[in-house]
Design goal:
The protein is an alpha/beta fold and 458 residues long. It is built from 18 helices and eleven strands. The longest helix has 19 residues. 55% of the residues are buried. It catalyses: L-glutamyl-tRNA(Gln) + L-glutamine + ATP + H2O = L-glutaminyl-tRNA(Gln) + L-glutamate + ADP + phosphate + H(+).
Length: 458
């Protein structure tokens, strides 16, 4: 049963919301000790909310559009009365006093939040190994990283600990772990989802998005969290589609009118075994009627340095509030190596004598990258390719910073350009999941969802 089917079963009283929660709580209790996907679990509160929903249904009362579905929430998104630590000792005792906009919308629609998921400290990482609370294991490839920084959210889905989870994506932090864990992850168009209540990594790049085991879960989540928020300065004030409508249509026809682009530079930086799986996926899309063309993106080597220069400066700025006066510990005194590296680099680049040399030039490079991606997308519906260029390493394996950053080379493009992107499982290499990434024009999120739904049906 897919997530949309489960939702209908709860609303039709064929499945109790309480039973849905109990099932996930049992799985979490059984698996979380070894996986470390959840940092905090609220079984009591979740069951109370589920009982409330079941009572409404029994009485014939109206329930919300998420009635009884269970969510896991990344530890950098504020949920009232929960420890929102961003997996850092800095905020180990920070109990949130409010709900982020996305959380308000989930609660208003009778979604049930079962707990808070693990992540790289302050989202600064690609493996979920930098968490103050310890690494998360990959349920789909035990002993290997689940990816990051939303590794706990992806692992929770892969281990079937919740229906839907939320992550944040600054340079691939939803899509990277979705690929490694063999689940679906979606980064919406920048500004489509409110960032209010998200602990910043890099405000001009961050975007909240969902992870799920099937496209119906992604669609249901997007219908809830996408939309204008007058309290958030990057929020888009425009009409948005009803995403669930797109997945009730004839999915196998989705590619027939689509023009799909591949980029040779994506293959050039990717492991051969991953490329074979992606090439096979392209063949399947062609068989479904998609027109596939090869394009060239000549600025791929510019993307990582541009991304990290912007990230360093904006992260340094966002962490100045963690000075030990109001939010627990002073961040520089207790944070891990990667967070400290980004703070020190950001402080250095932010100095007046260097800001023009580095940060302003990085912003110029981002404009160039955005323009080039816009040109590529002008005459095509989607760009497809691998989500990450290499398979996940074993937990504890020592990587140099640039080796870790290399995981992001194919995902940072969407954040720099502000475009939507998703990752869906394309296959396995030696039993390890490999993700297919789909990117589209700004506000063409629906095209990605339709394509993923068609690909999923194969």
């Amino acid at each position: 049963m897919n997530i949309l089917g489960k939702l209908e079963a709860i609303k039709n009283q064929e499945l109790k919301a309480q039973d849905n929660v109990e099932n996930f709580a049992t799985i979490i209790e059984k698996k979380n000790g070894s996986l470390n996907a959840f940092l905090e679990v609220d079984k009591t509160g979740s069951l109370a909310k589920a009982k409330e929903i079941d009572t409404k249904l029994n009485n014939g009362e109206k329930v919300g559009s998420l009635a009884g579905l269970v969510f896991g929430i990344k530890a950098n998104i504020n949920v009232e009365d929960h420890i929102i630590s961003a997996s850092s000792k800095t905020l180990e005792n920070y109990c949130s006093s409010y709900d982020a906009t996305v959380i308000k919308r989930i609660k208003e629609n009778d979604g049930i939040i079962i707990g808070i998921t693990n992540m790289d400290e302050f989202a600064a990482g690609s493996s979920t190994e930098s968490s103050f609370h310890g690494a998360t294991d990959n349920p789909a490839a035990l002993g290997r990283i689940p990816g990051g920084s939303s590794g706990g959210s992806a692992a929770a889905i892969a281990a079937e600990m919740c229906d839907i989870s939320l992550g944040s994506d600054t340079g691939g932090s939803i899509r990277n772990p979705a690929s490694h864990c063999g689940v679906i992850g979606f980064k919406p168009t920048y500004g489509a989802v409110s960032r209010q209540g998200l602990l910043d990594l890099s405000m001009s790049l961050d975007q909240i998005g969902p992870l799920a085991n099937d496209t119906t879960g992604i669609a249901i989540a997007l219908d809830t969290i996408v939309g204008y928020d007058e309290t958030e300065c990057t929020s888009l004030n425009q009409d948005f589609p009803v995403f669930t409508d797109s997945i009730t249509e004839n999915s196998e026809n989705a590619f027939k009118d689509m023009k799909i682009a591949t980029c040779k530079q994506f293959n050039e930086v990717t492991d051969e075994n991953i490329n074979k799986i992606i090439d096979n996926s392209v063949d399947k899309i062609t068989d479904l009627g998609g027109e596939v063309v090869e394009l060239s993106f000549d600025y791929i080597d510019l993307c990582l340095p541009t991304y990290y220069l912007i990230n360093y400066v904006e992260f340094f700025s966002s962490t100045r509030k963690y000075d030990g006066r109001k939010y627990g510990h002073k961040i520089e005194d207790v944070c891990g190596k990667e967070v400290l590296r980004r703070i020190e680099m950001g402080a250095y680049i932010s100095q007046q004598e260097f800001s023009g040399k580095y940060y302003k030039r990085a912003l110029q490079a981002r404009s160039l990258i955005r323009n080039e991606i816009s040109k590529l997308l002008k005459d095509v519906d989607l760009i497809i390719g691998p989500t990450v260029p290499k398979l996940p390493h074993k937990i504890g394996e020592k990587l140099e910073p640039m080796e870790m950053y290399a995981y992001d080379i194919l995902t940072v493009i969407a954040n720099l350009a502000g475009i939507p992107a998703g990752s869906i499982k394309a296959g396995e290499s030696n039993g390890i999941p490999v993700g297919l990434q789909l990117q589209a024009k700004p506000n063409d999120d629906l095209k990605i969802l339709k394509a993923m739904n068609a690909f999923e049906s194969l």
